[in-house]
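Troubleshooting log. The previous run stalled partway through. Resubmitting the same two chains, unchanged.
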Amino acid sequence: MLARKANETRIVITGVGLTAPNGNNLAEFRKSLLTGKSGIQKFNVRYMGEVPAGICHFDPLKYQKKKELRRGTRAGSVAVYCAQEAIADAKLDLACLDKSRIGVYVGITEHGNVDTEKQIYEIKQFDYNTTFVSHHYNPRIVANNPAGEVTLNMGITGPHYTLGAACAGGNIGLIQGLQMLLLGEVDLALAGGVSETIHAFGAFASFRSEGALASHVDPEKACRPFDKNRNGVVVSEGGCIYLVERLGDALKRGAKIYGEIVGYAINSDAFDFVLPNAQRQSECMKLALNKAGISAGDIDIINTHATGTREGDAAECQAIREVFGNHINVYINNTKSYIGHTMGAAAALELAGNLPSFEDHIVHPTINVDQLDPECSFENLVINEPRKVDKVNYILNNSFGMLGINSVVIIKRFEE
Amino acid sequence: MTKEEIKSVLMEIVAQIIPDEDLTNLKGDIPIREQVELDSMDFLDIVMELRKRYGIEVPEDDYMQLATLDSSVAYLEPRMKEL
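Second attempt completed without errors. Output:
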């Protein structure tokens, strides 16, 4: 029996702001995940032509002026939209908050490539004369840009920074928010991840050179984790920022609580620049379970990181078997099959899509599995159709990235 | 370009740089920055647009010449009359 934690050391999610290629708030996103609605479409990438990608269709003018959009970056705009939506969802009035006690922690895979490519493209028209490089370039490409734009837009004077963590960024932004709340550095954390990567050709081209860029005549079928014929990653943009706070504060103001962050872990493969490592991934999951003080058998849903690459999906399945081998009651799903790989936003977005399961007891499926790869077969892999289940008490969210960064977050259904 | 054409170009550039501002009552003889929200980075956008569109270099010492719409037209007229 676990010792009961004080409310000041329990961290809960009380607001969700998101934009995904198939939804611009949690209700829309969840509906898409339960009805099999993909957000992948053909997208024209500079120098490459049409490739499948996930594009977000939120209204940036909902929270930003036209001048802010001209000045800032796409990642900044995504972050502003998500942060504002999270505050609104948490039913907080920004005007009544001590803005020096709010921290902004935004996970990113990369930042600055979009504007670097754009500047080089533009000065090419002037024979590479560098006097045509924009004075806006530096504030756009500094690594803290997406988080900084949130503070500028919302007048937040607490700490802000991004966390560069490849495709684990979204989990790591959330973990950072939790840690700063536990340290008492802030009273509210806006924490999650964003991505603008689709607006740079480099990521697409590099994945293609690796033989890891997904292709399919039907863009909606391009991302197919666990399918025998999966052929790579679909790059997408997106964002998800949570409003996170200490349980005591949340209870005091009668906040709606989506769930409690009870476990988390980050570790490193120390193995390869791009190849996954199942052993380290399984160690990461075990570390998170230990932190939560629970066993593998307690987890109800695993939201996988699987991106649709041959090696990556197989390695994660091997890691899951290592940890959960005898616990066939765990339901396994994947969100990238709908929205592609939203990079820095992926972990946070994919977790968000599963949070409603605590209330509706439905596990959203992974789509596009026509021929299940035997290497990725699990008894309770939820394929193509949502699954109604008896209970959902714990969700485990995997997210891994290049250079061997692994992250796991465990969320518990809230109960006092 | 005539003075009127230069003024029209400048108005178009300013409108592009500060799209949220209403420029209909912008007066020619009062500094632009006293009438609308236009900061130093926006001002550099005007300089950059002149460079990109017309190859005109405005040295930093001359920035004051672009304070008002009228003074900008007067400053640019000899540099743009052949365009």
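Takeaways: The first helix of chain A runs from residue 26 to 35. Chain A touches chain B at residues 65-67, 70-71, 126, 131-132, 134-136 (CB under 8 Å).
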